[in-house]
Amino acid sequence: MLNIVLFGPPGAGKGTQAEKLQQKYGILHLSTGEVIRQEMNRGSELGRLAAQQMEGGKLASDELVLGIIENYLQEHRTAPGVIFDGFPRTLPQAEAFDSMLKKIGTQVTVMLALDVPDEVVTERILTRGKTSGRADDQSLETIQNRIAVYKKQTAVVADFYKKQDKFRAVNGVGTIDEIFDRLCAAIDALR
Ligand code: AMP
Per-residue pLDDT tens for 57-72? Predict the structure, then answer.
């Protein structure tokens, strides 16, 4: 399996790039944020719990997110590969993820980390907020909190993959196509 962890701060363009990568490489795309938003829109128990946990731009709990991943892996055991977008976001998630993948005889192939300065992601999220309908894209305070949470809880996940020699930084500034070409070059260099 080609298991890609697409990493980077909120607003780095992970969702946009994941859609394009999915098409080019014929693999699946799992966005934990998207699954959570769908659950919230459906008004499910999981969605309600997540909404409480995420208030003000905080992360959902590891337990909740790992449950989503576990289910997904069960359902897609035979997939040729998956782009994990927005996961893992904490060290415990990365560790648990390694064990889960090992159990099904696979592993993370590579972490592709989009490198984008704070000012650029803030601007991108505010622009996205005009059309995305996402409550967490609307307020500058929530956006700044999400960036702070990324630095405090999520950035360390990069070190986890650096230690395994799976980390590849990709310049995330430029046009969608320019960034896509850089990601593809990083993937093709693995083969
Ligand atoms: P995203 O769509 O990736 O920007 O995620 C939107 C929100 O969903 C985040 O700000 C978190 O509150 C929550 N979320 C998504 N993925 C995770 C994760 N792996 N761990 C914890 N919370 C997550």
Answer: 999 999 999 999 999 9
Q: Catalytic site residue 134?
A: yes
Q: State the average pLDDT over residues 77-105.
A: 97
Kindly report the pTM of this predicted structure. Answer: 0.97
15 is in an annotated binding site: yes
Strands 2-7 and 28-31: unpaired
In the set 42, 48, 134, 151, the catalytic residue is 134
CA–CA distance, 91 with 3 (Å, rounded to integer): 18
Binding-site residues, ligand 1, Cβ < 6 A:
10, 31-33, 36, 54, 57, 59-60, 65, 86-89, 93, 136, 146
Residue 124, annotated as binding a ligand: no
Q: Are 60 and 66 in contact (CB under 8 A)?
A: no
**Opening angle at CA 166, ends 190 and 178, nearest 5:** 60
